[in-house]
Amino acid sequence: MTTYAIGDVQGCYDPLRRLLDKINFDPLKDQLWFAGDLINRGPQSLETLRFIISLGASAHSVLGNHECHFLASARGHKKPHRTDTFDDILNAHDAEQLIDWVRSRPFLHQDTVLGYTMIHAGLPPQWSLNEAKRYANELETVFKGDLFDDFLAHMYGNKPDQWQTALSGHARLRFIINCFTRLRFCDAQGRLDFNEKSAPPESPAHLMPWFEAPNRQTAHDKLIFGHWSTLGLNFKNNTICLDTGCLWGGQLSAIKLDETEQVISLDCHCSLKPF
After folding, report:
1. In sequence order, which residues have a C-beta less than 8 Å from that of residue 89 and are 6 or more positions away?
2. Is position 186 within any domain?
3. Contact residues for 153 (Cβ-Cβ < 8 A; gap 6+)
4. Domain range for residue 13?
5. CA–CA separation, 248 vs 227, rounded Å?
6. Which tens digit of pLDDT belongs to each residue from 176-205?
7. Residue 231 CB-half CA count within 13 A
8. Rounded to an integer, what distance in angstroms lies between the CA atom of residue 74 and that of residue 100?
9. Residue 207 belongs to some domain of the structure
């Protein structure tokens, strides 16, 4: 059995199928990890979602910011943006089942045998991996429970921007979901910044990628993430960024999760510009 992790697909179904052909993916014996943002902005969100669901236990995906936005829109808590491309899902005859599947995805996936953990965006420097797993579970419990809609109505916002164990209620959950689905930068004190979307060295001097923060508690854990197309394929401090910007005319990339960490990429043919 071979396990591959794949970066942000964002509805780019055709490149995904070509990539799986390139790696000779066999759903009967191989595993796929998807680093979130399966859907939205690309041309074939419905086809992408249905295909990944059809893989059953052969595929694992974590929730990204685009899935969270999709859920908020589907439940009437956020107006769709002009660039959203998930109407095909919302108008599908099985829309409720598709929404429920997305809603049931985790925020963190780990395989202790392989030694890798996957998230969509980042982890604040104050959290250990065990704490991150606990906070992911806390959020997943809300997503699967009766407080789901109440939280979606309060999900958007950049505050609080620094972790305190005493955080509670919507503020606590908002911080947690922002880390898992939106984080790129923080400062030396571990304060999160959600406005900057560039990559070093273009970013402001007082900010650093979350994986370069001093005293990061997960510095010795192997973490895989996506979300950061302007950063691209990046190996640093035991982290691997797999968002190589397929949606923006870049590449779609997979990494073999073994001692080789072989990266397999193919060119995509989209024309959107990062924003």
Report:
1. 39, 45, 46, 49, 70, 74, 95, 98, 99
2. no
3. 77
4. 3-180+216-267
5. 13
6. 999 999 999 999 999 999 999 999 999 999
7. 27
8. 11
9. no
Q: Residue 12 in contact with residue 45, Cβ under 8 Å? A: no
Domain annotation covers residue 62: yes
Query: What is the number of domains present in the chain?
Result: 1
Amino acid at the residue 195: N
Tokens coding 167: 């955080």
138-186: per-residue pLDDT in tens? 999 999 999 999 999 999 999 999 999 999 999 999 999 999 999 999 9
Residue 118: closest CA among 232, 20, 40, 3: 3
Q: Confirm whether 191 is domain-assigned.
A: no
Q: How far is CA 75 from CA 10, 71, 90, 141, 153, in A?
A: 20, 6, 10, 18, 9
| Band (273; pLDDT cuts 50, 70, 90) | low
The answer to whether residues 177 and 183 touch, using CB atoms and an 8 Å cutoff, is no
Q: Distance between CA 49 and CA 38 in Å, rounded?
A: 7
